[in-house]
Every structure is written in structure tokens, then in C-alpha cells.
Design goal:
The mean pLDDT is 97. By secondary structure, the protein is mostly beta strands. Strands 2, 4, 5, 6, 9, 10 and 11 form a seven-stranded mixed beta sheet that branches.
Length: 126
């Protein structure tokens, strides 16, 4: 059974940083493209970043480019999202997800992902 669990959310002031972790079980994180998504109240779930199966390709939505960094540690079977220069508009529940095998090069579309974590709340507020 493929499963992912997110950790690391919390309350941070604008301009601050957080690192989210996505711990995988039932598979290895270098077997599939892995993605981070978020959902703010009143908004649809949106793709934030992904790292391809090979680990070579990473991609970010425009609004987080240069501020967020996705990475993985295969030995720890964990994917990370380092978030810096956080803004109030980054407030959301953040989800880790496992892509369908067809998307080995990556995707930011929610429909490309089969397995989802329960999410972790990130609140950016002064």
C-alpha cells in the first residue's frame, strides 16, 4: 500500500521559512514523480512543485519560483519542500502526492496524481 505522510507545517511570520517533509512507505521516492500541492480556503487545490522520477527535473509554480525548493533523500525515503520568504498568500494546507507512473517526467496537474497525504497546515501571519 502506497502511503505518504506530511510533516513540518506550522505558524510562521511573513518572510520566514519552513521545511515540509513527506515520508513515503510502500514504495521508494525514486520510483515515481512526487509533487507538492496546496489548498487555501475558498480556492481549488493547486500544484506547487514536483520532482521527477529521476530526480533531475524539478518545477515550480510561478508564484513560488525562487522561494521554494523541492528535494528528496532516497536513503530516508523522504521528499522535502523548503519554503523561504513566506508570504501571507502561501497560507494553505500543503499536500504531498505520488504521480501516476505515466508522469515520470513530472506534472503539476492534480489529475496526474494517484496517492495523497492528509496534508499539513501552513499559516503565514504576523
Amino acid at each position: 500500500q502506497l502511503q505518504v505522510v506530511e510533516y513540518g507545517g506550522g505558524l510562521v511570520q511573513p518572510g520566514g521559512s519552513l521545511r515540509l517533509s513527506c515520508v513515503a512507505s510502500g514504495f521508494t521516492v525514486d520510483s515515481y514523480t512526487m509533487g507538492w500541492f496546496r489548498k487555501a480556503p475558498g480556492n481549488e487545490r493547486e500544484g506547487v512543485s514536483y520532482i521527477s522520477k529521476s530526480g533531475v527535473i524539478t518545477h515550480y509554480r510561478d508564484s513560488v519560483e525562487g522561494r521554494f525548493t523541492i528535494s528528496r533523500d532516497v536513503a530516508k525515503n523522504t521528499v522535502y519542500l523548503q519554503m523561504s520568504s513566506l508570504r501571507t498568500e502561501d497560507t494553505a494546507v500543503y499536500y504531498c502526492a505520488v504521480a501516476h507512473p505515466s508522469y515520470s517526467l513530472g506534472s503539476l496537474q492534480t489529475s496526474s496524481y494517484n496517492y495523497w497525504g492528509q496534508g499539513t497546515q501552513v499559516t503565514v501571519s504576523s
